[in-house]
Amino acid sequence: MAQSFRDLQVWQRAMQLCLQVYRLTQKFPKTEIYGLTSQMRRAAVSVPSNIAEGHGRGNPAELRRFLSIARGSLCELQTQLAIAGEMGMGEVNKIEEASKTSHETGKMLYSLMQSLRNQLDGTDG
């Protein structure tokens, strides 16, 4: 396991996503400050936060559990990005960029979860 959660590529990509979401939602209507803006930001922050927390537990089973929580938050965020796009909120290119990063992050999470599952099951993959 990596020495620090900061060394995990999936955490680094999740941080990129979080920053993209914050930049995207800055241009959302002020009426959405307690609605979609808040929801998207919380979901985006949850992804790298849960990766870091799981890593900090120092146990592969705990890490896998927190990666699963991060993946759930990522799915929530992907849904919210789709809603924002359908509602015409934010810049289209920023929504597309965040969506692309979210899918890359999802693939990375899935791969790491599979690797941990194989490790916990005692298989090579």
Record field, number of beta strands: 0
Main sheet record: none
Structural category is: mainly alpha
Q: How is the quaternary structure best described?
A: single chain
Mean pLDDT across the residues is 95
Query: In angstroms, what is the radius of gyration?
Result: 15 Å
Report the end-to-end length measured between terminal Cα atoms. 17 Å
Shape: elongated
Helix-strand pattern:
HHHH
Number of helices: 4
Strand fraction equals under 5%
Stretches where pLDDT is under 50 for at least 5 consecutive residues are none
Which range best describes the helical content: under 10%, 10-25%, 25-40%, 40-55%, 55-70% or over 70%?
over 70%
Summarize it.
The chain is 77% helix and 0% strand. The protein is built from four helices and no strands.
Provide a descriptive summary of the structure in words.
- The structure is a single chain.
- The protein is mainly alpha-helical.
- Helix content is 77%, strand content 0%.
- The chain has helices at 9-25, 36-56, 60-87, 92-121.
- The longest helix is centred in the C-terminal third of the chain and has 30 residues, at 92-121.
- The radius of gyration is 15 Å and the shape is elongated.
- It starts with 8 loop residues before the first helix and ends with a helix.
- The model has no long low-confidence stretch (mean pLDDT 95).
